[in-house]
Amino acid sequence: MLDRHDRIDIPGVPSPEPSSEGETRPERRWLGILFNCCHVYGRIYRNRKGDAYSGRCPSCGQSVNASVGPGGTTRRMFGTR
Fold first, then answer.
1. Pick from 5, 27, 40, 65: most CB atoms within 10 A?
2. Measuring CA to CA, how many Å separate 68 from each of 20, 21, 33, 47?
3. For the chain, how many helices (H) and strands (E)?
4. Distances (CA, A) of 12 to 5, 15, 53
5. Using CA atoms, how far apart are residues 10 and 39, in angstroms rounded to an integer?
6. How many CB atoms sit inside 10 A of residue 19's CB?
7. pLDDT tens for residues 28-67?
8. What dihedral do alpha carbons 34, 65, 74, 58 form, nearest 10°?
């Protein structure tokens, strides 16, 4: 079984450059969604413009969008209708 730190070399796929210590990738903002269509949880991520979150149900692929409004909310979990 592979550990998340194991490296696998695949011919034809270049290895990523090693990052310097302390360098981290910026965290992508997300919302947790209960997709009522299939009764599963998933995440939707903020778009590049930063004005909405969008994603799809992990089971059936139904799309969902949530706009970012003035003032926002502290909630992180939502459900679809």
1. 40
2. 34, 34, 15, 10
3. 0, 5
4. 21, 9, 34
5. 37
6. 9
7. 889 999 999 999 999 999 999 989 999 999 999 999 999 9
8. 30
